[in-house]
Amino acid sequence: MALAGTDTMDLDGKTDTFLLKAVKIAFVVVLYWFVSITMVFLNNTLLGNRELDVPLFVTFFQCLVTVGLCWCMNLLSRLCPGAVDFPSVKFDLKVSREVLPLSIVFIGMITFNNLCLKNLGVAFYTVGRSLSTVFNVLLSYVILKQTTSFYALLCCGVILGGFWLGVDQEGATGSLSWSGVVYGVLASMCVSLNAIYTKKVLPVVDSSVWKLSYYNNINACILFIPLIVMFGELSKLYSFSRLYDAQYWGMMMLGGVFGFAIGYVTGLQIQFTSPLTHNVSGTAKACAQTVLAVVYYASIKSFLWWTSNIMVLGGSFAYTWVKGLEMKKTQEEPQFKNKSDKNDSGV
User: Fold this and answer.
1) How far apart, in whole angstroms, are the C-alpha atoms of residue 43 and residue 90?
2) Separation between Cα atoms, residue 60 and residue 256, nearest integer Å
3) Backbone phi, then psi, for 17, in 5-degree steps?
4) What Pfam families does the record point to (predicted)?
5) CB neighbours of 317 closer than 8 A, spacing ≥ 6?
6) What would the pLDDT profile of 146-197 be if each residue is shown by its tens digit?
7) Which of 20, 108, 322, 329 is the most exposed place for a label (fewest CB within 10 A)?
8) Looking at residue 231, what DSSP letter applies?
9) Residues 308-325: pLDDT tens digits?
10) Degrees (nearest 5) of the Cα angle 121, 127, 130?
11) 8 A C-beta contact, residue 139 and residue 234
């Protein structure tokens, strides 16, 4: 586990006590939860604006803010090299072209993600976007020819069951948006494709996640412009009564900052814990997010509706745990084989 041991060594070579490390990990996890949940509620507010229905422009603006923040962080890292650590993000057209296929998937991911949130709301968002694990298994087999264990498939079956039960129960209350469900499925597929293509493209940007985010968001900003024009969002924006309202643009800017921050806190949580713990934390965060949304919007949900959420979250948690055990077993097998070979040779 992440907290195992009495003393740990940090990056500067200093020894941290168990209590201090526990406090640091708790702070990082809380920070991740705060940024992630706040971003979801903030995006829901921005996208739910009935006076201005411009989801593509909202997503474009957040990408633009991310590019600007990357430039700022790059500048700060040059001015304060000891305090800020950020890779150089000089634009290279050749690298941009190589990242372009991933950027197209990235655009689909963030656009469908926001459209799913807009149409389904925060409470049902977790269930609507729950099929990314299922698509991971399916696309890994189709594209990478990777097979999946029976127990992992069983977990996927639980997630699928929870998804269909959730759709049924949301429909029973009369609040189901089929377009939101479709957007959720497409977002889940794009999340899985994004993970697969990221592994292929990372070497192009020296395996730097921040560089990849920089090029992804620059490409996205360029590709979003014709889409915004095509879907008539410019005319809607022009006729918006609060076009020069500082409060509205402050909210938009805040949404972009949180969109940038989620990448940082995600990496921070993985660094201080592990990928497995990060996934477990994300699942628990989704559960808390659903409960908060139901309480905040004073919604009344049926027992079966809650059951669907429990199935989705439980299946996701179990899948993460099973994959973690399988990875651990895979890593231990070569070590065991090496020991066995040494014993057989009489060493």
Assistant:
1) 30
2) 10
3) -75, 165
4) TPT
5) 280, 283
6) 888 999 999 999 999 999 999 999 988 888 899 999 999 999 999 889 888 8
7) 329
8) T
9) 999 999 999 999 888 888
10) 125
11) no
Give me 182's structure tokens. 């479709």
Contacts of 57 (CB under 8 A, 6+ apart): 224, 228, 233, 237
| Beta partners for residue 7, in sequence order | 17
Question: Which residue do the tokens 């059951």 mark?
Answer: 307
111, 182 in Cβ contact below 8 A? no
* pTM confidence score: 0.83
The Cα-based distances of 176 to 1, 43, 140, 295, 339 in angstroms read: 40, 19, 30, 19, 58
Supply 263's token pair.
Answer: 């990448």
Annotate 272-287 with b (16+ C-beta within 10 A) or e (fewer). bbeebbbbbbbbebbb
Residue written as token pair 């957040």: 62
Site of tokens 């020819």: 145
